[in-house]
Amino acid sequence: MGRKAFCWFFCLLMMAGGVWAAGSDFEIGEISLSAETWGQQQATFTLKNVSVEFKTVIAGAEVAFSDHYLSPVRKTRAVVFLEPEQSADVVVPVNIPGNYGTCVVSLNLSDVVDTLDAVLESQVFHRQQFTLTFPMPEGLTKVVGEYLHVPAFVEKNDYYDNYFGRAMTFLLANGRTVDEVASLTGCDIAYVDNAITDYVDFGYFAKTPDGYQPSLMVIDQSQVQSVRSAIDKTVASLVGLITTNMSGYDSTIAAMIVAGTLTKDPDNAIDPGAVLHHKYPVVLGLLLWDLLGREFVNNGEPFNIFEGSDPCNAQMGDFMYLVSGGADDVGSSFYYYLHTKKAERFHTGIGAMPILCDPRYRDLRERNKYVNWSFSREKPAVFHTYTDDKVRAPLSILMDGTVPTIEGLRQAVDDLAASTGQTAYGRGARLWCWSLVVTDVMNQLERDGIVVMEGDGLYSLTKANLKR
Predict the structure, then answer these.
(1) Is 402 left (phi over 0), alpha (psi -120 to 50) or beta?
(2) Structural domain includes residue 8
(3) How many CB atoms are located within 10 Å of the residue 98 CB?
């Protein structure tokens, strides 16, 4: 037999039992998905270690969506330990969330030393992808609307980063049955039942004598339009008042500097009044949210949108809302107030708030443990301190005439909640409305040159404790 023929024979012999991976340390059987539908699926295959070494393999699955305005991602993995010449039947969990568009399931097999280490590109010895398509059912958007919005933090939550979760919530809130939810969204009843159980356990839904109802404010497009004119009127009024009041604010700051009660250095880290030189966080955080926002949303009282939860799990209680409408019908501003034994602070901003969560955040929540989180380095927060004594006088100037302006809108939102039988979740309606107002006001003030955004528009303000 010639050398070339022998090589072909050898390769065919080796491949008879499966696919050899790069490096010839592994033999991989055919990889298959248990089903190409939403839900908990499995990728299964046989893996053989054909080397003389002990091997640890991480089989990681990533599910990602495209071609839709929501793009949820799910990552799962399985770990396999193999002795030399040992084979194993590998089962990798694959979680396909309820979303539409193109779904790509990527499976990467990595030869690692320690499962606690980060997986390096050089350790991947096999890749395989499955491309699935989930078309939007005809008529669904006519019932629920093309865009369904939730608060900024919740939009990254596993429950509401996908269209099905939002559509199911909207449909149940509007009296649809489980069968109708399944029919309209294009899935089977078992998937809806399982989802409802999860949402009940997390606190988003409640069981009632008539079935299941979302425990949150749900607002449709017609209801948005019913208060739209009042929102626009309030925004215009606030922009006008703040613009007019800004000259008095500037005069007050100048007088405080002359009197020696305020530093003239905007970056002075010792004087808790230095924040007053930074108009954007003052107007956004101290005025619109910490003063007017408290009044509008919670009748003047401090409020924590994640009481008993955290930004990672994002269970917002009766501050939660879902809105059917266009991009201009929801705000991108947020306010997260915290009062602990060590400090009183709040985080606020315009736009997305990228955060880093402890990977165990779900498990920690279930065990009532604190969940560590931090701002993403890609969008760091700007930190300021303040005291009530330092900011009271300048803020009173900015605030002049604004309270009567917001009272009519607050009543209109309360009437909306009452007319839809959702008075219990009125604070969710108020939070939705106020986030929209703040977003529009800040954007207009920035366009007019009244305020200038610092950094990425994300701020953390801590009340200084000068007695400590």
Answers:
(1) alpha
(2) no
(3) 22
Query: pLDDT tens, 42-83?
Result: 999 999 999 999 999 999 999 999 999 999 999 999 999 999
Cβ proximity of 344 and 463 under 8 Å: yes
Q: Domain range holding 184?
A: 140-204
Assigned domain for 457 exists: yes
Query: Number of folded domains in the chain?
Result: 3
Query: Which residues of the chain have a pLDDT value below 70?
Result: 1-23, 466-468
Q: Fill in the amino acid letter for 162.
A: N
> Do 427 and 458 sit in the same domain of this protein?
yes
CATH number of the CATH domain containing 59: 2.60.40.10
Q: Is residue 6 assigned to a domain?
A: no
- Please give the structure tokens belonging to residue 153: 């933090």
Q: What are 267-284's pLDDT values in tens digits?
A: 998 999 999 999 999 999
- In a domain? residue 458: yes
**Count of alpha carbons within 13 angstroms of residue 448, beta-carbon side:** 15
Question: What single-letter DSSP state applies at residue 402?
Answer: H
Whether 128 and 284 have beta carbons less than 8 Å apart is answered as no
Q: How many CA atoms are closer than 13 Å to the CA of 397, on its beta-carbon side?
A: 16
The Cβ-side half-sphere exposure at 331, using a 13 Å CA radius, reads 26
Q: Are residues 127 and 165 in the same domain?
A: no
What is the distance between the alpha carbons of residues 82 and 87, in angstroms, rounded to a whole number?
7
Beta bridge partners of 78: 59
Helix, strand or coil, per DSSP, at residue 44:
strand
Q: What are phi and psi of 56, to 5 degrees?
A: -120, 125
